[in-house]
Design a protein that fits this description.
By secondary structure, this protein is mainly alpha-helical. It has 3 helices and no strands.
Length: 69
């Protein structure tokens, strides 16, 4: 396990700090889920979106019209 991964005891501590105490049998599952989410987000952070139009500029009806025309 790398130093960046959340341990079950750390997951329990962070959940408790957030006001969401976890039963002991959920600590490992929550830590594993948090570590998976972190790994996915880490990959997304590496992507280059420089030429991507902001979501606010996207218009579904225009895209649909162009696709069917």
């Amino acid at each position: 396990m790398s130093a960046a991964e959340l341990t079950p005891s750390q997951a329990a501590r962070w959940a408790d700090r957030a006001g969401l105490p976890l039963p002991a049998d959920r600590h490992a599952a929550v830590a594993a889920t948090a570590n998976h989410i972190h790994s996915v987000v880490s990959v997304l952070r590496e992507l280059d979106f420089a030429d991507t139009t902001p979501a606010a500029a996207y218009r579904t009806e225009q895209e649909h019209h162009h696709a069917t025309a």
